[in-house]
Amino acid sequence: MNAAGAARVAALIIRNVELVLRGKPALVRLAVAGLLAEGHLLIEDVPGLGKTTLARCLARSIGGRWSRIQFTPDLLPSDITGVSVYHQKDERFTFHPGAVFANVVLADEINRGTPKTQSALLEVMAEGQVTVDAETHPVPRPFLVIATQNPIEMEGTYRLPEAQLDRFLMRLSVGYPELEAEIDVVLGSAGGRSADDLAAVVEPGTLAEAVDAVRSLHVETAVAGYAVRLAAATREHASVRYGASVRGSIALVRAAQALAAIEGRGFVTPDDIKDVAVPVLTHRLVLTPEAELNLRGPEEIIADVLASTAAPMARAGG
Hints:
Blueprint: H1 3-18, H2 25-36, E1 40-44, H3 51-61, E2 66-70, H4 77-81, E3 82-87, E4 92-97, E5 104-108, H5 115-118, H6 122-127, E6 129-132, E7 135-138, E8 144-149, H7 162-165, E9 168-172, H8 179-190, H9 204-215, H10 221-236, E10 240-242, H11 246-262, H12 270-281, E11 286-287, H13 289-293, H14 298-308
Parallel strand pairs: 1-8, 1-9, 2-5, 5-8
Antiparallel strand pairs: 3-4, 6-7, 10-11
Helix pairs in contact: 1-2, 1-9, 2-11, 9-11, 10-11, 10-12, 11-12, 12-14
């Protein structure tokens, strides 16, 4: 499969999701870019704006198996990863897979799980495998975690650690819809239209081929260098205590490749890097106490970095 094939896959998923999630084309485009990059997505916003709906629409658009984990304080790590059970008759342990063994895992309200439970996702999100009782079990491919969280409700929640935030390719915010779009949403809901009505439009094998095609898209050395310089600039910003890691640089390029594929291009431009900079980098920054007191947000920091870092001249194809 080439870039054109990946673009067709993306178009199928985008059209399917937009049957339910109206008025958010830019959000859906970025979310599908995350799928094509085989990157995990963190969807964060206030209640009632469609975080879970978006996650379910994405999951249902992909054939194969998907599972939903409702994070609560009493959820155990073994509920996620699985457990080895001793069978006395056979005198041996048998591994029973947990909910994470699926192509798409919807981690709903992930910040309601305890830190110990949240950490059960660290290995599988980074390496695509789970280790239980010293035995390694690979999860199916493609493998995607789509997590949601409410950033304004603190009671009964646990802040995601930086190590876990860094494993998400992008953090997306749904936002309030425009008036006309909200009317469409209300009418659609009144008519009974929901994510449950969606049928799969892409099989896991086809999506895996699209992911491979995205990763083979051409990236000029100058464009990759631009991504690295943006990530490095976050580490040197006066308002940032800890900037984006090397994983952040890699994520910038992977997300930009996916965005280029959606556009049907076989190469990445500096504008692709700019378009994904905010969703890819903001959740990777730890601001200084002074910046937090002055109510400086990570989006403002990324705007500074983009303004102060010169982009290379784009060259087609390469």
